[in-house]
Amino acid sequence: MTALITLENVSKRFDRRDGSSVAAVDAVSLEVRTGEVLAVIGYSGAGKSTLVRLLNALEKPTSGSVLVGGQDLTKLSEGELRAARSKIGMIFQQFNLFRSRTVAGNVAYPLKVAGVGKAERDRRTAELLDFVGLLDRAHSYPEQLSGGQKQRVGIARALATNPPLLLADEATSALDPETTTEVLSLLRRVNAELGVTIVVITHEMDAVRQIADRVAVMEDGRLVEIGDVYDVFSDPRTAAAQRFVRSATHDRPSADTLARLRHQHPGRIVSVRITDEPGLQQRIDTAFRTTGTTAELVYGGVSEIRERRTGSLTYELTGNVDAALEALRADGVHADEED
Ligand SMILES: Nc1ncnc2c1ncn2[C@@H]1O[C@H](COP(=O)(O)OP(=O)(O)OP(=O)(O)O)[C@@H](O)[C@H]1O
């Protein structure tokens, strides 16, 4: 798969008032593949917004290069940058719609700026509003719309000039969970039906789970983990990714739940990772049976990511628990004793 965006060893430092400086983005190398949905996650201050501003050339890196569609953004003149930016659609948390323009006026605006004639503008605007399901609201004003509808207008407007790339900066953070799901499924259609590559910046792991093909985890300006969303969810490698996954999946007991489980169950509490490997349940049962261990299922959850099974089951084990754990691990089953 070819790369639409390549970041090579990109850093962005900002000077602070006290004379020190902060690396908002610190030596990040990253490829965004043509046609994928890549989610970039991280807590507040991790450097996500700065990364987006580097991708659309609103910031220049202190060092490193940013290639979009083979063009090094750091080497372009201001005129060339404007042209490059017009090939990148953007949507925002606060929608950033023009309040004084109608829905159709908002969507047509980038076409007007690009010098597209009225007839073609009207045709394209209607086509986009139809795509996002808002044709009947063409003459409404933004303030007459719900948050989800506003974001759908934002998406239509971002796509007006047919950009191959869409950047979504916290695009669902102001929406309730149900509306979030609607907007995310629209973005999935934008990707699948229009072939637009999408970079989603978010602190919401649930959004990642619903939309992304791959996920990149940022912490203190650095890219600490990147992988297929299934792999990162089912086997997060770094502490930062583990924290995020825990926040979105509730298949492992929380500290409170664990305390209660311990109170009710005197045996040892062990969580086993569930993946989509065939025959996994049978292998788990065999490890318990052959070691004479009694297993009582006390907690757990199994769900799907990208149509693949993932989750965790927590057992109270009594009997020869050490031998059971050894048998599980020897068979490649990931088992953690809860501490
Ligand atoms: N223009 C700036 N001047 C000085 N420091 C900045 C500037 N922009 C960002 N920073 C600093 O860089 C770091 C990363 O900020 P950034 O906004 O990119 O993080 P973020 O992950 O997007 O966080 P949030 O979700 O809160 O926006 C922070 O420490 C921030 O204070």
From TrEMBL:
<dbReference type="GO" id="GO:0016887">
    <property type="term" value="F:ATP hydrolysis activity"/>
</dbReference>
<dbReference type="InterPro" id="IPR003593">
    <property type="entry name" value="AAA+_ATPase"/>
</dbReference>
<protein>
    <submittedName>
        <fullName>D-methionine transport system ATP-binding protein</fullName>
    </submittedName>
</protein>
<dbReference type="GO" id="GO:0006865">
    <property type="term" value="P:amino acid transport"/>
</dbReference>
<keyword id="KW-0067">ATP-binding</keyword>
<dbReference type="InterPro" id="IPR050086">
    <property type="entry name" value="MetN_ABC_transporter-like"/>
</dbReference>
<dbReference type="Pfam" id="PF00005">
    <property type="entry name" value="ABC_tran"/>
</dbReference>
<keyword id="KW-0813">Transport</keyword>
<keyword id="KW-0472">Membrane</keyword>
<dbReference type="Pfam" id="PF09383">
    <property type="entry name" value="NIL"/>
</dbReference>
<keyword id="KW-1003">Cell membrane</keyword>
<dbReference type="InterPro" id="IPR041701">
    <property type="entry name" value="MetN_ABC"/>
</dbReference>
<comment type="function">
    <text>Part of the ABC transporter FtsEX involved in cellular division. Has ATPase activity.</text>
</comment>
<dbReference type="InterPro" id="IPR045865">
    <property type="entry name" value="ACT-like_dom_sf"/>
</dbReference>
<dbReference type="GO" id="GO:0005886">
    <property type="term" value="C:plasma membrane"/>
</dbReference>
<dbReference type="GO" id="GO:0005524">
    <property type="term" value="F:ATP binding"/>
</dbReference>
<dbReference type="InterPro" id="IPR027417">
    <property type="entry name" value="P-loop_NTPase"/>
</dbReference>
<keyword id="KW-1278">Translocase</keyword>
<comment type="similarity">
    <text>Belongs to the ABC transporter superfamily.</text>
</comment>
<dbReference type="InterPro" id="IPR003439">
    <property type="entry name" value="ABC_transporter-like_ATP-bd"/>
</dbReference>
<comment type="subunit">
    <text>Homodimer. Forms a membrane-associated complex with FtsX.</text>
</comment>
<feature type="domain" description="ABC transporter">
    <location>
        <begin position="5"/>
        <end position="245"/>
    </location>
</feature>
<dbReference type="InterPro" id="IPR017871">
    <property type="entry name" value="ABC_transporter-like_CS"/>
</dbReference>
<dbReference type="InterPro" id="IPR018449">
    <property type="entry name" value="NIL_domain"/>
</dbReference>
<keyword id="KW-0029">Amino-acid transport</keyword>
<keyword id="KW-0547">Nucleotide-binding</keyword>
